[in-house]
Write a structure and sequence with these properties.
Number of strands: 24
Structural class: alpha/beta
Bound molecules: adenosine monophosphate
Helix content: 25-40%
Strand order of the largest sheet: 2-1-10-9-11-12-13-14-15
Largest sheet: 9 strands, mixed
Length: 508
């Protein structure tokens, strides 16, 4: 099937000839979509795109709600030789204008509810075709799909051709479009399927967004590659996940999924048939890992990756899943910890910048050759910008983004170390430690803290607590108690927002 299209071939092999097998199960209505219907619809989507003049290598930009038809559009774009470019549903018209201007797609598909505002933006960016796809298969794209015959002959694509561009979240400066090849996506999904033992018997709870690498490439491609099923939920909903869990075998989530699910007293019973819980995209607290194990008997398997590289490391399927670590380099992925200035590899146990190399790594940033040259070395090593440490057994611990490192009075402070000490104090749920401008020290440490409900913690008690375990220069100069930390849709704490909010807190 699809012999000459590298990614399409890889993700269709497991369902080849299994037309009646279930691919998607609507988590709300229980309605199922078979593999036969899914592939036929993806082929119709491909035919509709080619009908709009899509040429191999053309971009298809998409900002739509999470719908099975969006997955058909993704696979249809790949079949048609195009480059899929999903956009966060939270982006405003201005932001969409930037992405369309930068990526110059031939087709833009948006929610019918936003089409009025976005058509103008798309026209301004020179996009030839604007189509719509909304909740419940609303919009004209599904009509166009249904007007096409199935049986589309996949456009040949080589392993190094582009299959997708995903923009990074861009917390500093402009968002960058990570160019992902057929080979990067196919090889990484295959590695994960094998490493995590996914088979056609698996039923994955799919509650992640599909505009991001985690929900689109990890969750969706792994399911397709295994020929398994996915219970498709439009967004995270603890109640809905608990309800479908007895019929599922695996869950992939960000850490907030797990902290929220822990609050449901039905979790222990609901999780009895599950075989695997995977967490990633942000650090999982060791406490969450321990609580989950106590309640469900399962050790959450934490893995680490990013938009540019797909997945790099994972805790083992069999063996020691170590809380607080992101596990071992995946097969085919090389990982090293380097000195940020010299690029020299550091000894085990030292903290430095993590670099990765392998087929999983992206091909560069879309139309940003200088940025690409800064971060992707000629010999293939990608400088992730994450600070990490590797121990003698190869387990990697992520310490934080290098831009979150605090340099105070010339000393380096790793926020994660201070956060770990604060989180262990009584009455604390979690914390975020940031650097803010300071007259004498350049930057000073400030902690933003969330207390357990009903517990009142004060600044002095926290200062006292950290004072017993941390050197003076690592201790926060101020502690601020808040109800919750700002997070993006992938559950990442937005330290850039906190730095802005508290920028003046130490100014006289
Ligand atoms: P994104 O490109 O949105 O997937 O974000 C990638 C970044 O998320 C990485 O560079 C890390 O900083 C962070 N990240 C992903 N997985 C983990 C993890 N398991 N633990 C800590 N940070 C993570």
């Amino acid at each position: 099937m699809y012999e000459e299209n590298h990614l399409a071939r890889a993700i269709s092999m497991a369902s080849d000839g299994r037309h009646d097998a279930t691919f998607l199960i609507d988590g709300r209505s229980g309605k199922t979509t078979s593999y036969g219907v899914f592939w036929a619809n993806a082929e119709r989507m491909a035919a509709a795109l080619v009908g709009m003049g899509l040429q191999p290598g053309d971009r298809v930009a998409v900002q739509t709600p999470k719908e099975p038809a969006m997955l058909e559009l993704y696979v249809g774009t790949v079949l048609a030789g195009g480059v899929f470019l999903p956009l966060n549903t939270a982006y405003t018209a201005d932001e969409i204008g930037y992405f369309l201007g930068d990526a110059a797609p031939r087709v833009f598909v948006c929610d019918p509810e936003k089409v009025e505002a976005l058509t103008q933006v798309a026209q301004h960016a020179g996009v030839a075709h604007v189509q719509t796809l909304g909740a419940g298969e609303d919009g004209n794209l599904v009509k166009m799909r249904d007007a096409q015959p199935a049986g589309f002959k996949a456009v040949p694509r080589d392993p190094l051709d582009l299959a997708a561009i995903l923009y990074t979240s861009g917390t500093t400066g402009r968002s960058k479009g990570a160019m992902l090849t057929h080979r990067a996506l196919a090889s990484n999904s295959q590695t994960l399927r094998d490493y995590w033992r996914f088979t056609e018997k698996d039923v994955l709870i799919h509650a992640l967004p599909i505009f991001h690498t985690h929900g689109l490439f990890v969750a969706t491609n792994v399911t397709l590659m295994a020929g398994g099923s996915a219970i498709f939920l439009p967004a995270f909903d603890a109640e809905a996940i608990i309800e479908v869990m007895p019929n599922a075998t695996a869950l992939m989530g960000v850490p907030t999924f797990y902290t929220r699910l822990l609050k449901d007293p039905r979790l222990a019973d609901a999780s009895k048939n599950m075989r695997l819980f995977v967490s990633g995209s942000a650090p999982l607290l060791a406490e969450t890992h321990d609580r989950w194990r106590e309640i469900t008997g399962h050790a959450i398997l934490e893995r680490y990756g990013m938009t540019e590289t797909n997945m790099n490391t994972s805790n083992p399927y069999y063996g020691d899943r170590r809380a607080g670590t992101v596990g071992l380099p995946l097969p085919g992925v090389e990982v090293k910890v380097c000195d940020p200035d010299s690029g020299e590899t550091l000894p085990d146990g030292d903290i430095g910048v993590l670099e990765v190399r392998g087929e999983n790594v992206f091909a560069g940033y879309w139309q940003m050759p200088e940025k690409t040259a800064e971060e992707l070395r000629e010999d293939g090593w990608f400088i992730t910008g994450d600070l990490a440490m590797m121990d003698a057994t190869g387990y990697v611990t992520i310490v934080g983004r290098s831009k979150d490192l605090i340099i105070t009075g010339g000393f380096n402070v790793y926020p994660k170390e201070v956060e770990g000490v604060i989180d262990d104090l009584p009455g604390i749920v979690e914390s975020a430690v940031i650097g803010v401008p300071h007259e004498d020290f350049g930057e000073a440490v400030v902690a933003i803290v969330v207390a357990q409900p009903g517990v009142s913690v004060d600044e002095a008690a926290i200062m006292d607590g950290v004072g017993r375990s941390l050197a003076k220069f690592k201790q926060p100069k101020r502690v601020i108690v808040v109800d919750e930390l700002p997070r993006n849709t992938m559950g990442k704490v937005q330290k850039n927002v906190l730095r802005k909010t508290y920028a003046d807190i130490l100014k006289a």
